Amino acid sequence: MAAPDGTLVGVCDSELDPDRHRSSYLTNKVGGQPDWFPGVCPPCPRCSRCGAPLSHVVQVYCPLAASPYHRSLHLFACPGPGCSRGSQGWRVLRSQGLEDQGPQGGTSRPDPAKEAPRPATDWCDTADDWGLEEEEGWGGGVKKEQEEEEAAAPEAGSPSLSSRLQELRLAESHGDLLVFRSFFISVVQESDLWGEEDELEHAQELLREYEGREGVAVRTLEEGGGGGEEKYEKSRARHGDAFFSRFMKRISLCPQQILRYCRGGRTLFISEPPPHVARLVSACGSCGGPRAFELQLMPALVSLLQRTQGGVELEFGTVLVFTCVSSCWTPGSGSAVEEFCFVQTDPDQQLFN
After folding, report:
1. Which domain holds residue 298?
2. Measured between alpha carbons, how far is residue 300 from residues 26, 72, 189, 341, 346 in Å?
3. What pLDDT, in 10s, does the model give residues 82-107?
4. Is residue 53 situated within a structural domain?
5. How many domains does the chain fold into?
6. So what's the pLDDT on residue 44?
7. Is position 211 within any domain?
8. pTM given for the model
């Protein structure tokens, strides 16, 4: 299978301890409280199915090429019984802010040595990570960024009284809201993973040639767990579902992936979608323009979404997010823009636990 182009795969990194790390809208994370841009009024989204307040699931910092805006997506879900299995229990909100507006709300840009947001031109077309320095690998860049932010905090000055009061009001208003444990998200190019599979397939071919030539059976590679292919065959036999089989085959090299990002790319359905699924994606509620696929949440994320005391709360297979093609935004707007998400249940959740 040809390596897909431009897809980024997100995996769970270390836990984000709010006592040690100060997250901002530049942070890619699971759970915790959402970090909104300065000037954006923090919304309190509710479930369309039961009316309960939604919990924050994922925050993704995703600026676009040639855009002057920082840009983030926030996904929320209802922890109520059965709500997260359908689209009514989810909401996705997009917010943006000009690049000269720093994380603390000032109009001057932070010192790049202390705070290093990726420029808009480094996303989608040319970027290969989400704010990670290449030499840091999968997770070091994000943690290093947080440590540098923490070290720079005294120089940036103490938060204003108004910002402290705002945080206090938010804490009070979310007193009964379920907050999931928070983790950093690290990223890798999916094409790098496919390169590893090519090497494995070549090794298996050499092994088969050796077996045929010598008349012996060596099963080390197959028994040793290189077995994305083996898992795929078992899944296909169990379900008889071509969509699920393709899904398992595609993620077999990194089954622990929790998120896939490819703006304008192809969706990866976990089961057969309804007929004419493209017609279900509504137009942008802000500008009326079309929406396109941008990212999707994966089954491995479910086991991470726990109360601080433990216990899985959400159930889903994959959550597909479609956003405004033009990423419309009104300068100075204080309201996040709602985008569209489509949820599919998982036919075999236990494979990812």
Report:
1. 8-352
2. 23, 22, 18, 18, 11
3. 899 999 999 999 999 987 655 544 43
4. yes
5. 1
6. 94
7. yes
8. 0.69
